[in-house]
Amino acid sequence: xxxxxxxxxxxxxxxxxxxxxxxxxxxxxxxxxxxxxxxxxxxxxxxxxxxxxxxxxxxxxxxxxxxxxxxxxxxxxxxxxxxxxxxxxxxxxxxxxxxxxxxxxxxxxxxxxxxxxxxxxxxxxxxxxxxxxxxxxxxxxxxxxxxxxxxxxxxxxxxxxxxxxxxxxxxxxxxxxxxxxxxxxxxxxxxxxxxxxxxxxxxxxxxxxxxxxxxxxxxxxxxxxxxxxxxxxxxxxxxxxxxxxxxxxxxxxxxxxxxxxxxxxxxxxxxxxxxxxxxxxxxxxxxxxxxxxxxxxxxxxxxxxxxxxxxxxxxxxxxxxxxxxxxxxxxxxxxxxxxxxxxxxxxxxxxxxxxxxxxxxxxx
Length: 364
Description:
Blueprint: H1 24-31, H2 35-42, H3 50-62, H4 68-75, E1 80-87, H5 92-102, H6 105-108, E2 113-120, H7 125-134, E3 141-144, H8 150-161, E4 166-169, E5 180-182, H9 186-201, E6 207-212, H10 218-234, E7 239-240, E8 244-245, H11 250-263, E9 267-272, H12 277-286, E10 294-298, H13 302-310, E11 315-318, H14 321-337, E12 351-353
Parallel strand pairs: 1-2, 1-3, 3-4, 4-5, 6-7, 6-8, 6-9, 9-10, 10-11
Antiparallel strand pairs: 11-12
Helix pairs in contact: 1-2, 1-3, 3-4, 7-8, 9-10, 11-12
């Protein structure tokens, strides 16, 4: 990068340049910093602010001490360090989303982002709040699936005070300083599920069950609200059984579905609001009810794709995971450029997938 290697001697004295060539002192004078700072910048040593580095490099280029290519490299903004903080567990849509982010370095580069992924316990708000705060020195922005809890709101607000923007992904948290939400209109998603089930069951008197991950997720709460609102309006003759939480765990969703099928042999439909559809499918198959119980859920994955193909599931409501990732990237890019966070970003649509319209590919 430099015309010659510049190193201070044992007494900290800097060498002078050949007669007629600019010296370290000339660069220091032009950039308004000390010769020691110039020495640190030109030898790529840490401890100098980015704005100062750029000022020194600009002065060195003006004096022909470094080539223009070195100046261009120094003036280019460093990639934003972003973290995708996602729930761990058996939710294959979220696992696939994390895999997608890790494999998308080239896709995120045009946004000026360098992303990493971390999975944490899905339903522990205190752990989520701690995880958010422990990264504030390490990253420039965080996208995460939020839990509705005071500790999470406080963590988001504290990160905002420290100039670390947060984007909620898939599930939102309100009354805090997150900069944007990237995800579906979950009330509309719940209403859509209600419409599908009402049509599949032919709006006759029938029992319908709901299994959620957790109502600590605003997304699941809003889906339940939309589902109940639609059936109350359009199919009041259908009886909705009390909601059960399975915490996106395959074993728990299996136990909940098996209990429902045992206690309600006339059960007509199940709406799986969250993840772990494999547990529900297993219970339906064991009871030999997979052909007569309507099963609607969320998230197109290799697993739900197989369930659609074999007829265990009737419909899957989903969103494009790549689109969600790129929307998060666009939010951070907008913030860096001084634009509104959601400038140019379209709200994601609810895709309804049946066996007959399965797309060619899905998450890895």
